[in-house]
Known about the structure:
Elements: H1 11-14, E1 30-31, H2 34-45, H3 50-57, E2 93-97, E3 101-105, H4 117-122, E4 129-132, E5 144-147, E6 162-165, E7 167-169, E8 173-175, H5 181-189, H6 195-205, H7 221-238, E9 265-268, E10 279-282, E11 287-290, E12 293-296, H8 300-304, E13 306-307, E14 310-311, H9 312-321, H10 339-380, H11 386-392, E15 413-414, E16 420-421
Antiparallel strand pairs: 1-3, 2-3, 4-5, 4-6, 7-8, 9-12, 10-11, 11-12, 13-14, 15-16
Amino acid sequence: MHAVSDDVPALHDLMPWSVRPLRIGRGWPLAPEPTCLRARWALLTGAADPAARAALLHPTRARGLYTPVAQLPGHRTPTTALAREDGRCPEPVRVQHGAFDPQWLIPDHRLIDVARPELWRVADEQQIFAIELAHLPEAPEPPVVFSALLPDGRSPAGKPCRIRPLYRRPGGLEPNLAPGLTAWLAARLGVGVGAGDVLAWIAAAARPGPAGSSVPLPADPDLWRQGLTLGRESVWLHTAGARWADPAAGRGQDRLRLPGGSRPYVRSPLPSVPRPGELCYDPQTRTLLIGDGRISPVAPEAWELSSSGVRVLEQWYERRTAAGEPGSLEALRPAAWTRTTTSELLELISRLTLLAGLRRELSDFAAQVARQEEGGRGGRGRAPGVTAELRAAGILPVPAARRRPASVLAHHEEGPDGQFALL
C-alpha cells in the first residue's frame, strides 16, 4: 500500500515506527515565550470557583477539571485533579510547533488531550525526529523535515503529519529502522552504514507521494556519499544547529550565520507591540517591514520559503501577534516585542536563506538520482527492483512489533492521584 514501485521502498517500511501528531485540545498551554504561560496558569489556578476555572480551562471530552491522568514521562508534575490544583506552574519546555517554529509548552498531561507519551519517553539529546508532511501536489517541497525538539506534528496547512523518531529507546539506542537494513546497505555499497547515515540519505532523497513518502536506495557509493553530505546539512539546518554540527564541514554549533553582506540586520527599530497584518516584504529593496520597522537584507527566497504551502515567515509572525478571544487565557499574551523575539526572527531569516539554497541543491540531486535509476533499469533488464531485493533478504516485510513503540522501563511514571503507572 505504501510502496510506490518495486524500485522505491516506502519510508513507512524503512522507518517503521511512526506516531500521529499531538493533540493539545486548547491553545493556551502553548506560547512563543514562557512568561505568559506562567501568567495563564496563575489565572487558571486562581479562579474563584469551579465554573470559572472550567471556562478558562476550555474542557473537552478528553480533559476536564476532574479527568484522572498520569504524568508525562520525564516531568514530575502533580496528578491531582485540576479542580484542586493550587501549585506553581510546571516549568515550560521547548517543543517544535510545525516545521520551523519552536514554542513553549506547559508539560502537564492534565492539559493535553493526546500527548503521545511514547514520544516523550524517547526525547533526549541524541534523538532526531523525522516529520513526514502530508502530500500536497501543489507544494513542491521536501516531504520530510526534522526536529531535535519534541515535535507536535502539526502542519501549517492543517494536514496531519507522521512523526518518526530515529531511535526507539532513550540514549540513542535501537534505531527505528527495518531490521537488517544498515547491513544490507553496507554490503550493497561497500561502505560502513550507520543509523544516522540512513536518516541523512532520507533527508536528501525522500520523495513525496499520495500514498506516503518513498526513498530510492542507491548502489553507487559516490552518489550515497553525496546524498549524506546534503542530508546532514539538511538535518543541521532544520534543527537550528542542535544536531550534526561539524565546523570542519561549515556546520557550526553556534547561531547559523550567513556570509558577511548577506546577514539581516534591524535597520529601523521594530514596533514595541507589532499588530497583526503589519508584516510585508519589499522585493526591490530586499526589506522585511513590520510597521515602521525595517530588516534587511532579506533574500526573496527566504520570504517565499514555505512549509506545506504556507510562507514560514508569515505564519511565524501571525503566531506572535494574533489576539486571543477576549476573556480567554489565549488573550493573555506577551506585553511587548522583546530583543529575544527579534533575535529569533533574524536567526529564522538566516536559516530560511540557507535552506532555500539547499532546496535548490536537493532538487538537482533528485534529478541526478532519477537519471541513475533510469540508467540502472535500462542496464539490468528485468532484474528485480530494490523492494524485491529487500524482501528476498528478509528485511521486508517489517515485523509487526517494529511498528509499535519499544517498552521503556528505566523509570517510574506517576499515575492519577499519585499512583504509579505500569509501562
